[in-house]
Amino acid sequence: MAEILKIDEKKPLTDQLKDAFKFLKDGEVIAIPTDTLYGLAALLSDENAVKEVYKIKKRDIKNPIPILIDSLPSLDLYAREILPYAINLAKMFWPGSLTMIFKPTQLVPAIICGGRDGVGIRVPANKIVNFLTSKVGAITGTSANLSEGADPINAQIVDKQIGRKIKLIICSGPSLLKKGSTVIDVREKFPKLIREGVIPWPKIISSMF
Q: Which domains are present in the chain?
């Protein structure tokens, strides 16, 4: 079974997360809290670890996996041909529960994109995730459950579904929003809704005008 590491966000994170850093750098997949749902984290730069995420979730290799980054300035590392309105949306909704699909750079392995020319990117409103990504770079951000399984809104649900397949679950209590992020495609001149989650689609559209 996975070790459940309880984190106190009021205390320094460096010492508390040292095992998480080691697992990620050693190519392991771990579960992490985010502002939406708990996620499965592997280093984006480790293709074998990314493949393991698909295996753990029993996810179709043709289905892309979103990634999490630490801040808007890091976006250029992983996205290309970024349109001005996408930058404006990022400034409004990041950190937060908006995932935007961009054209990927060469730093994004093809397996992440599911054979498509697009990668979902988000900056979560979660201190733990942002601290991790600021130290190790982009990580996978798919939900920490089996495909079609119950939403992982807490560490216990994660442990029940996939605890035998991973070594570490970082626990900071129940997820605040208990719902997936809203996903939009921003590769064209006007955004396209892919999945409505926490942020209502009309709110996104109205913010553009």
A: 3-206 (3.90.870.10)
